[in-house]
Amino acid sequence: AMRKYRQAEQVLKQIEHSKQNSIEAVKLRRFLTQAQNFKALEKIDQNIKKDNLDVANALINKSLYLHPNDPDFMGKKVDLYTHRHQYAMAADVDKKVLSLDANNATAKQSFKDIANINPYFLYGINETGVNTTTEYVTLLNAVWEYTTIYYARDGDMGRAILSMNNASRFKRNA
Predict the structure, then answer these.
(1) How many CB atoms are located within 10 Å of the residue 122 CB?
(2) If we measure between CA atoms, which residue out of 117, 104, 26, 37 comes closest to residue 73?
(3) What does the alpha-carbon distance between residue 59 and residue 123 come to, in Å, rounded to a whole number?
(4) What is the reported pTM?
């Protein structure tokens, strides 16, 4: 609370040494880490809210490099992916958080929210499909057909989609 992180770190190391695998020590370590990371987390939030997504992504990646399994920074990655509508990638990060801490309430809620949007996002970042439509155009007295085969993949920069379309109309195929 006094922001004397070095002194808190020294005391915490003494506690961890004297009470190995103590639940209290784990909770104190988590609290200290959150206190130390508060400003970085706040800065990431501000950039996401301002739509400075590339800046937010760089800050998150830097923070995850320094703290690879920190659930707070992983949660910010989820926030970023959700803001970009990259729900499959957000669900993937939530799975990692839950594998580290099965009781993480934020990740559980995020996972439920993504499932409510579309449960298929929980299965991964690849998508394949076929869309087919046949329409009768009364004005032209003709049947138009469309078939599209597609493959989509979410990546760090967004969603990439490869699609092939076959259309039959005006008595021509394309």
Answers:
(1) 17
(2) 37
(3) 27
(4) 0.58
Residue 92: both structure tokens together: 């993937």
Q: What is the DSSP letter of 84?
A: T
Task: Identify which of 74, 130, 128, 129 has the alpha carbon closest to the alpha carbon of residue 101.
Answer: 74
Q: How confident is the model over 50-63, as pLDDT tens digits?
A: 998 899 999 999 98
Tokens of 16: 């961890």
Report how far residue 174's alpha carbon sits from residue 168's, in angstroms, rounded to the nearest whole number: 6
Edge-to-edge strands, sheet with 172-173? 126-137, 142-155, 158-169, 172-173
Helical spans, DSSP H, in 50-131:
53-66, 71-83, 87-100, 105-117
Phi, psi of 140 (to 5 degrees): -100, -5
CB proximity list for 51: less than 8 A, separation 6 or greater: none
Residue 133 parent element (H or E): strand 126-137
In terms of pLDDT, which residue wins out, 6 or 50? 50
Residue whose C-alpha is closest to residue 41's, from 26, 31, 27, 56: 56
According to DSSP, the β-strands at 126-137 and 172-173 are: unpaired
pLDDT-above-90 percentage for the chain = 22
